[in-house]
Amino acid sequence: MLKKEQNDFLTQTGPGTPMGDMFRRYWHPALLAEELPEPDCPPVRLELLSEKMLAFRDSSGRLGVIDEFCAHRGVSLWFGRNEENGIRCPYHGWKYDVNGNCIEIPSEPEESKLCDRIKLKSYSLVERGGVIWIYMGPPEHQPELPEYEFALAPPKRRFITKRLQETNWLQALEGGIDSSHVTWLHGKNLNSDPLFQGSKGNQYNFGDLKPVFEVVESEGGLYIGVRRNAEDDQYYWRITQWLLPAYTIIPPRGDHPIHGHFWVPINDHQNWAWSFDYHPNRDLTDKEVQAMSEGKGIHVRYIPGTYIPLQNKSNDYLMDRAAQKAGLSFSGIDGIAMQDASLQESMGSIQDRTKENLTSTDNGILLARRRLLNAGKALLEKGVAPPGSTPESQRVRSAALLLPRDQKFQEAAADALIAVPGKPHVTV
To answer: In angstroms, rounded to a whole number, what is the distance separating the alpha carbons of residues 172 and 306?
Structure first.
């Protein structure tokens, strides 16, 4: 368990908090490119790390993200007009460019210098891999652009979605690196979901309900190795990669795509759960894309016109007690993503970790917390840049494979855990 002050340290990511300062040293997915599809399209409200912002694409196609509120009298610029390379406040016509500079105050005389003294907070945005990424930290520490393999995959080889989750970022992340629950919570889906079924690895999941966790530090985070017994004196290994602060890559099953998540704090009580699928050496099939679009695999169905899951707290996640009782679904909730989200949201928006009782299958969670605490303190006290922000540390994969029982997974699977363009993923 954690002490209260440790839990607060890890879960609070607003301006001026230690973990907030650490999050601000990375590029994070902010918006899908489809949300700002063309010049002068409607702006988008964006809250991340407890900061309320406005994102827009100007007449020249440049991306910008600025403080949501006009410097004049605090009106939300979401109501503004996106025109002629700027956002114009509808209240009194003050206009701002993509860098937050005030470029026009219609009521002021031409000789007034007021405009020159007005500037809204702004951050860097860049579009890569169908995602608009944001960097919110000190400009002098801005890292190189993100090189996660899914973000570099050709458009026909990737599929990316996001959904609102009503929890703190940390319990979402911890769910993402806890694979011991898969056989229980998602067991029925392994053999029925079109993005999971048919893998020999599914048989190993069901054949050994006492997985053993071996967790090793990597350059950017952790290798979370989970082994189960297999035939011929072998172990079936599923190796999840976690990169600080909130990126997880889940081992593939058969020739299905690799998938994973980003868990980006909106504030201390909500996060954007980003989900991606990609295949390193072939296009996604029409059948796979259709399944993802219909909320299969790690994706969800939405309330139309939003990124809010159709299954949510307000409707008890459309839970089907009859299906649960009949054994058609262990939890009675449809879909892998919402099975996870429903239970994580049931913990409250910020889990009280002072009351938990952890076991050996929680070793990945324990070491991830320790790595986060250490990295946050090193940045706070010594200015040490946190791990996981360099392109070298991001060029990694997850893997599923069989190994002789006398081999250490981190050594035997070393090549499989490196992302090389066009190289097939290692899977069972």
So the answer is: 20
Are 164 and 45 contacting, i.e. CB atoms less than 8 angstroms apart?
no
Q: Which of 161, 172, 189 is closest to 341 using CA atoms?
A: 172
Total Cβ atoms within 10 A of residue 354: 11
pLDDT tens-digit map of 44-71: 999 999 999 999 999 999 999 999 999 9
Quick check: helix, strand or coil at residue 203? Answer: helix
- Distance separating alpha carbons of residues 334 and 341, to the nearest angstrom: 11
Which of 231, 222, 132 has its CA nearest to residue 177?
A: 222
Phi-psi region of 79 (alpha: psi -120 to 50; beta: other; left: phi over 0): alpha
Burial class (CB in 10 A: 0-12, 13-18, 19+), 402: middle
Contact call for residues 52 and 69 (beta carbons, < 8 A): yes
Axis-axis angle for helices 169-176, 336-346 (nearest 10): 130
For the stretch 300-359, pLDDT in tens is 999 999 999 999 999 999 999 999 999 888 899 999 999 999 999 999 999 999 999 999
The strand pairing partners of 160, in sequence order, are 276
d(CA 389, CA 243): 9
CA–CA distance, 169 with 10 (Å, rounded to integer): 9
Is residue 395 within 8 Å of 419, Cβ to Cβ? yes
| Beta-carbon count within 10 A of 412 CB | 14
Structure tokens at 291: 């399944």
Query: What whole-number distance in Å separates Cα of residue 302 and Cα of residue 242?
Result: 27
Of 359, 370, 364, residue with least CA distance to 213: 364
Question: Residue 282: how many CB atoms within 10 A of its CB?
Answer: 12
DSSP character string of 228-283: EEETTTEEEEEEEEEETTTEEEEPP-TTSPEEEEEEEEEETTEEEEEEEEE-SSSP
Distance CA 140, CA 178 (A): 36
Q: Which long-range contacts (CB under 8 A, 24 or more apart) does 371-376 make?
A: 371/217, 371/221, 371/222, 371/244, 372/10, 372/19, 372/22, 372/244, 372/245, 373/6, 373/9, 373/10, 375/22, 375/244, 375/245, 376/9, 376/10, 376/18, 376/19, 376/21, 376/22
DSSP 204-237: HHHH-SS-EEEEEE-SSEEEEEEEEEETTTEEEE
> What does each C-alpha distance from 236 to 113, 183, 359, 377 come to in angstroms?
69, 14, 21, 36
